[in-house]
Amino acid sequence: MRIGIDLGGTKTEAIALSSGGSELIRRRVPTRRSTYEEVVKTVAGLVEAVEADLGRSGLVGVGTPGAISPASGLIKNANLTLLNGRALDRDLAAELDREVRLANDANCLALSEATDGAGAGHSTVFAVILGTGVGGGITVDRSIVTGPNAIGGEWGHNPLPWPAAEEEGGPACYCGRRGCIETYLSGPGLADDYARVTGGSLDPPAIVDAAQRGEPAAQATLARYVDRLARSLATVINLLDPHVIVLAGGMSQIPGLADLVSGRWEPYVFSDRVETSLVPAAHGDSSGVRGAAWLWD
Hints:
There is one protein chain. This protein is an alpha/beta fold. It folds into two domains: about 1-110 and about 285-295, Nucleotidyltransferase, domain 5, CATH 3.30.420.40; about 120-280, Nucleotidyltransferase, domain 5 (2-Layer Sandwich), CATH 3.30.420. The protein is built from nine helices and twelve strands. It has helices spanning about 35-55, 90-95, 105-115, 180-185, 185-200, 205-210, 215-240, 255-260, 285-295, and strands spanning about 1-5, 10-15, 25-30, 60-65, 65-70, 75, 100-105, 125-130, 135-140, 145, 245-250, 275-280. A five-stranded mixed sheet has the order 3-2-1-4-7. The chain has a five-stranded mixed sheet with strand order 10-9-8-11-12. Helix 1 crosses helix 2 (about 90-95).
């Protein structure tokens, strides 16, 4: 039995999969995050609860919002910042008295979709999280491409490509730079773009709703979003040439987003024809936690 954990800033989810990938049980609890120790206890407690319910122990994989630094062996780049600089894999292993495998949450998404999701049967899969942040993960032949710096797939902290005059410089990013893809394509990025142009304040679902009702400013905001996503994914295709790009996260729920973007990226791709498929995640919000379980495949 494989147990996957999706460790997030607000909730932590667990799933248990059979050897064939069937879901046996699922649990979700709020992430207790006052201290690092509370986060460790949240994850360990969820594993123990799942095992108690099923009456057996399992192999444990954890998807995290950061990555293990090859230099230090500690977590880096986590937006759940109290994880940074901590030996989360070793601390969880000590708490659970067994080996625990960790991977970035976007890498878990990619692994899930490459194993039995929208990318199954394809050699190279690039998975995209469009949510509070912008993440990405790569698998080749169902193996995660982590890289020597543990930043494989981190396209969100590259600059927006082919910027228009009004995009030069770009918004400030928490990473310390300006104009990162994440500042445009995350949920907060969409809301900020609408506010910059209109002076109004709407969250992403309200912007999408207004656009569907024909509100011109909201429609223009979504049109800019689609074009920026097309440009950004074109650079991924130019560099990686994946067979499939999988979209996940809250922003991926924009109606028709995959078709709109794939209809616009061809001029930016260095090819006479674009064969890469752009598709929604087959397992939706469950894909990351499933991928954490598949870390033991």
